Every structure is written in C-alpha cells, then in structure tokens.
Amino acid sequence: MHTDRNQIRYLPQVAAAFLPASRTPLSRFYLRTTNAIPHCGVAKGESMAAVNGSGVSLASQAYMEGNAVKETRALVADLCRQFYSLGWVSGTGGSITIKVHDDCIPKPQQLILMSPSGVQKERMEAEDMYVMSGNGSILYAPSPKPYPHKPPKCSDCAPLFMKAYEMRDAGAVIHSHGMESCLVTMLNPSAKEFKITHMEMIKGIKGHGYYDELVVPIIENTAYENELTESLTKAVNICYLQFSYSTLLLPIEAYPKTTAVLVRNHGIYVWGDTWISAKTQSECYHYLFDAAIKLHQMGLDWSTPSHGPIQQARGAISAPVKAGLKDSSHNSETFPVSSFVHDRVSSSIYFDMCCILLDIEGTTTPITFVADVLFPYARDNVGKHLSATYETEDTQEDIKLLRSQVEDDLAHGIDGAVPIPPDGAGKDAVIAALVANVEAMIRADRKITALKQLQGHIWRTGFQNNELKGEFYNDVPEALQSWHALGIKVYIYSSGSRLAQRLVFGNTKSGDLRKYLSGFFDTNIGNKRETSSYVQISESLGVDSPSEILFLTDVVQEAVAAKAAGLKVMISVRPGNAPLPENHGFKTINSFLEI
Question: Which residue ranges are recorded for the region named Enolase-phosphatase E1 (predicted)?
C-alpha cells in the first residue's frame, strides 16, 4: 500500500496548552493519513473516526503505544539518570528531548519526547515524559504524583528546544547545567565566544578536526529560560558560509556550523542529528570546558595551538596571580600555580594588532616555490593520482567538482575546456579528459575551488612521501615564533585550499610551523580581491574593530580590498615579486622582522 508521507502530520489543535491533570487517554492522539501504514505500527483496516465532520481521520492508540515511542521514553529516563551522575541535571535543572525516529514519517513531523521541568531527573520513569507533535503541541502530559511531588510541568526549555529542531533539523537536544559549562563562561565576562584548538576531543564535535579552532557562541542569561529563545535563534540562524576553522560568525550573529550554545552563568544547549550524536558532543564539550578551566588555572592559553602562557594582550583573560597572594580586585586567593609557569608569565604585553592575516605566495613563500615546484608537481602527477585513488571518496568528490566546473567552462567558451565523458565510458576515458582540463586550468593559473582541492590532495601525497617540503623566506619562521610569544594570533588567507596551506606550513625545513598559526582561510570564504571576503574574515575573528587586523600581501588589488574592509595593510616586497604600480599608497616591508 502506498501512502504519501507529505500527508502525515500531527494535528496542532490537539492540546494547544497544558492538558487536564488526569492522564489523557492515548486514543485521543491523532495522525492525519488517508491510509494506514502497517510497518509504522498502525494496521491496515484499523478503525478510524472523524473529527468535527471534517473528514480528518484519527489513528487509534496503537502508534502511541508502539515500540518506537516506548523505547524512546525509556531512553530519555535512562539518559537523565546518566546525566545526573555527571552533574549535568542535578537540582532538577537541565533537560533532554529526543525525536521518535520513524522512517515512515518525515523528520520535521516526528513525535517529540521531552523531560518535564522541576523534577528529580534521576528518579524519572518512562511515563513521566511529555509527548509533543512536530510543531510543539502537547499531545500527552504525565499525571500528577502524590505529595511532595509537584504537579507535572513541561520543560521551560521547550521553546529553545523547538528552535533547534526547527532551524537545525536536530534529532535530539540536551540542556546541561554542568559546572564546567557554567564556569567557562565566567573566565572572561565580556567574551561572546568560547574558543579552543589543538585538543584531541575537538574531533568529537561534528565538522571539526584536531587542528581546527572550535568556536561556541555565548549568549547572556535571563531570569527565565523561555526568554532566551531570541538570543539562541540568532546564534543558530542558518546562513551558511565557509569558515577557516569550521565555524563563521556572520553580521547577524549566525554560527552556521555550531552544534552548541553556551548561556553565561547558566549552562549549555547541545544538539545533534541523533541522540547518540548529541550525547557524544555533550561529553566532548564538557571535557573541553574542563580542560580550558584547568589550563587557565595554570596560566596557560587554551585558545592557541601551543597552549603556551597567557599573555596580557588587549582583550585577553588575565593570568592568575602567584599562589598565596591576594588578588585585590576579587579579595580572594587564587588556585596555586607553579613557579615554572609564573617565570614564563612575568610581564604585561600590549600591542595594536590582535591578529595578523598572511598571504602565502610572494609574502611568506617565494613565488618560484609555487610556480616551479608545487604547480609542476601537481600537473605531472594528475593522471597518476587520479588512477591510484579513483575509487576513494576524496577523488570522487574532486571529480564531481571538476565536472561541474568544466560544464560551466564549456557553457562560457573557456579555452582548454573539453567535455568529460560519463562514468560509463570507462575510467581511462574519464581520467584522460580530467587531465586535459586540469592542465589547461594550471596553465591559466585559475583560482577555482575545483582545481585547488584536487591540487591539495595531490600535494598531500607528495608531502607524505617526502617528495615536497614547504619553502619560506628566512625571516618567516622567526617572526611567526615571535608573534606567537606576544600572544598575537596569526591566520593564513590564500587561494590554495586549506588542506594545501596546512601541508605547506606543516612540512618545512624549520619543522612544523602550524603550531604558530590559529586558522586558515581559502577562497571558499570569497575572492581575495573582494572587500566582502575581508569583512567576513574580520567578523569571524571576533575583533572589536577590523583595524585590529594587519593584512600582509604582495598584491595591490588584495591590499585595496582589505583596506576597504577596514583592515590595516602592508605590502610585502620580496625577490621575484611583480613590480608595484607607482603611488599605490601602501606601506611596504622587505622582511617580517621589520614589523
């Protein structure tokens, strides 16, 4: 029997507010469907009834009493007991909500189970859960328990949970009052974000890797949780743009890839595609918050790759004072800190630039390295690489991007573009066409994502096989180390892919220079000659003003675009660079050590 899934929805007119105190009969919970769905727990031919003569049919209580709902009820109760033992939902605080997974029902319309508010979470039972429709209408309310228990009440977090379901297509949301999630927002009362990088547990957060900077937005607390909805909405508003360390703060305060929002002096909301994802990420977030707090107590900076001593730079969090000394501003003793750390954190350092943004080619690295080493290596190994890795996920994605690019090139009459035959034509024919197109793109020095991504994968093989080593001007490693010691964060913005950037800086004659870098941007965020790209970067870095960022490049057009966005700009003059036009109006340097 065929049933149109678009016809399935839960009636919003059922219990728009709280239901009566007595437990509502399950027979009053309805599904609108023209045909019963046997494998969804409603048998074909089961009795139906009409509502107000409208012809809208009602399913019996079979679905509500089916295994999917029962198992999810029990799961919520079990998780609450686990979270209580972790300190996440003690004192009746915190909450959890999970959607009842059912392949027969579109995710936005699936039933929602939610733990009640103001109850002992560790003592909840399966029947204590609220059941709601996909649009938030209450379909089932638990019956009251004898004194001294309070009457049941739907979670105060419900409006915030619904925003996560609505805006992120979540499958589960966890609200924790864990001590770590509360204290970490107090380390810097003015901070709008929590940031951390180079920690293994970052890999447990969706869309992040070890080298990425994890960014979690912080919103201010209110007296009542349902008043937080507007702030949370801004934080999770979906408006996707690429971000060099996986997340991007937009002008409208949207974090398109975040899976959590911190509430200052309160706790955290975490969501995931499934309850497993939400639980795993919650555990990783709490671990990272605890690590940040302990690193802060030791006077170490969790937000930098090396986790070195906290520097008293503008906007930075003050390092703890020596053990046993009174902090006059707080009139309290601080956590004991070793003399080793205090020997390293002995003075305050102030500077005008919070961040430095670096181009690569002609700025940190000789143009000849790119033109005479990297490009030829990629060109000479295209066929070999594609043939050896043809079936891998990375290469299939590269081919997909190249096909799309070539189709566009053919439509616009781009020189060198040749049709790529379909997969059915055979691997060799496809690779031959791909090689021809890639060679033409390299000859034209095109700054396009499809080419840059493939080149990055080819170069990865070269660096892994020690056939390639990143080359830098002699002053670059020393300058990076010096800036890092001063607490200045350094980022890279290049037309090369983020993968390629990491490879170049991670494999050099001076060792791995990535430990001095805080993040990487590529052309996914925008063209380097467009002002909007630098606007997006400055907003993502969380500076008070774009003028706190210094951009170094060898290309005047890039300098003009960055200046228009409010960044400070200097032009790098290096051997082999193209001559600069007269009266370009920018300061120039021949070495980073001049800064």
Answer: 356-595
